[in-house]
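FAQ
Q: What does a multi-component entry look like?
A: The components come first, one per line:
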Amino acid sequence: MFEVAPVSEDTLLISFARGDVNVVPSMVSFIENNVIGLLDIAPAYSTILLRYDILSTDEENIVDALNSWQYDSAAKQQSSSTTHQIPVYYHEEVAADLSAFCKLTNMTATEVADLHSQQVYDVYAIGFRPGFAYLGYVNERLEMPRHDSFKSTVPAGSVAIADRQTAIYPCESPGGWRVIGRTAVSVYQHQQALFKVGDKVQFVPVSRQEYLGQGGVLS
Amino acid sequence: MSLPIARVVKTNGMVTLQDAGRQHSMQEGVTEGGVMDVHAAYWANKLLGKPKHNPVIEITLGMFELEMLHDCRITLTGANLQAKRNDQVLPLWQSSNCFAGDKLVFQFPQSGLRAYLTFDAELAIPQYFGSVSTVAREQLGGLNGNALQVDDVLYATEVGDDKRTVKMPTQFIPDYNRAETLTLDVLPSYQFSQFSDQAKATFTSHEFQINTNSTRMAYLLEGEPIKHEMTELASEGIAYGAIQIPPDGQPVVLLNDRQTMGGYPKIGCVTRLSGARLAQSFAPKKVAFRFVEREKAVAKWRDFNVFFNT
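Then the predicted structure of the entire assembly, as tokens:
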């Protein structure tokens, strides 16, 4: 069901064959309750990075502990998840990559917006930076590799795609994803993230006027 | 009780408060942070009998001045920033007794890049995820979520009264300028097996130059492109030292202030101690990579931690 591989002196990567959305959260809560010497974990779509205290445990102990995890696919996540509606202005004046994206996918901006907003996404992980939620998965027609290298500034609120993933940039930062729109909603404020793992997110296309009315900026 | 210890007189925007970094923060997307050179910083604390997690000032690239507001013993380790106390040389790799009114001045590095200054005092600095480490881009840590600013004052709840001079045994003093090319130990991991033999050979047989845009987050390297065709990769957690190879083939070594997740292919991780040495280097220094056995690297890192745990 999963493999464990060391990545550095004190860090392991647990990889799952793609399963349902609850597999990783189930393992995360198991690790938090059962792994001694845990320093940090970073859950993602189908992997968990685990850093441990090299003075109180080792790889063998951790792998032993992980092997006693049992996944009950019938046990649903107990937390009632929230569904967030996020208004997005899909337009090249706020989305530097939208024109190129349309060309590469052979779609119009409206088609991209419709396809991107027609489904409800799961929050698989929070990472990269505070408040950055990894959402999945996009329609396969929207799948697009990252840029060849990091762009130095991606504006706050940018809605972007990388491969099968989509996300909102919580604040201005460097980034390598393809930006297709922007939201006026702030997804990270006062050290509080709007989304948490297990939540659901749906994008709602809005007009320029609505976007500006919601406090959106064009620069 | 709150005692003013020191005031920042001049700074370059890259001088920050750090410690051994955060734990249990990655799930919130919050980076590890912490001192870039664990060797020099942990020694700074050890000389004063402080634990490795004790807050230190990481002085990057000099152009920094501090006025002492209280008599206090300090230690200085790491880069040679031509440090002076008033007009006297402030010696490296040992403790010094400073007095209220003293001016500590740090200039452009003669060797290394980052010096560490520790006070024999219990500094009062707010903690976030159990750490004072500053990550300016997230407005986290430090005094106000920022690098030290002019007129910032460090306060302490307690100041030590031991005045003995403590020196680091000379055999432990590193020579940051020694090699023209810095060789970094790498543990093959992540997508290593998906790189072609040719890509791996390019990686280990060429030198790469440190780019001027290198930061506490990442060291950007330039050289012969390491070619690969990997594109579809779900984002995953990023360990300290991870070496990303984006499609342009130029390696990026992710260090303390790295993003917690990323999706570019990674060929392995620079070891913690190699990363510490890399952090003392800057453009246009050259680096090379060599793969090392994991067992040896683990033993080395464990021994290092045992040494500084006592």
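Q: Is there any commentary attached?
A: Sometimes. For this entry: The CA atoms of residues 219 and 253 of chain B lie 5 Å apart.
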